[in-house]
Amino acid sequence: MVAYFIVAPYRSSHYSYLLLAVALWGLPEDRLLIPWRSFLWFGIPLVLFPIIMWRYFPPIWNNVVYWQLGTQTHLLDLNNFFKAIPGNDGWMFRVIQTPWLTDYFRWIYANGFTLPVLIPVYRSFLAKDSLKMIRYSLSAHVLQFVLIFPFYLTIHVNEVWYVLGHPDGMARQLSAADAAVVVVNCFPSMHTSIAFAMLLLAWREKDKLFRWIWTFFCVSVIYSTLYLEIHWVTDVIAGIFLAIAAVKLGDWIISSISSKRKLFLKVNNNSHDQNTPFGLLFRQMKEVD
Q: What pLDDT does residue 14 have?
């Protein structure tokens, strides 16, 4: 953190390192007292999973969007309806606009799809908590892509600036062809759903500093979508409900696996070694239950 302030306090590319440093500040409060050798069997694949996903998934997603635009006819086109709702364009979130705020929210939005998940996963890795790593990944992109895709297939909503004919809040200098891909699939707001789901899970951590820092960061992600005229207010509200559903579904999946595991052991009159990787993971599930 000291190096950050000395070397480049105003360089937005370094914000991520500052955010990571603050997130890890109170890590000892959440670290589990288990052997690294046992944890790494799960920890290494779990920490690599989101990195690999964000490396290879975007091209796949772009192909899906092009397929939507080329072959799919949406059941509902809600652009005019959303435009007609008073205040739905989020004008009240842009009453105060400054160059610094705009730069800040552009950085927030550009990183709001990855950092809200990636840093908690890294933090959980260093805390040697594989169950939290699973929970963060599961409640974010893994489940949310499944939950949100039916909306994207059936509902057509473009970004606010595009519908209103305003300049792009992210200043992306999009061509007409690029804009056709970028501005679709707004309802619900996945930036909102990812950020709010991670906020909900962050409040299960013991470290108070991390809880409040992550609340501020995730709320900033949600606010950025309105400040930059990316999402409608209705997109954000729907994104919050999607986040709640993803977290609840993730909890249910983990709880169900834990219950079935315990039933299997009981029926087979078997017990698992508490010091094995699987034993440690299921012991965490049992403690959560």
A: 72
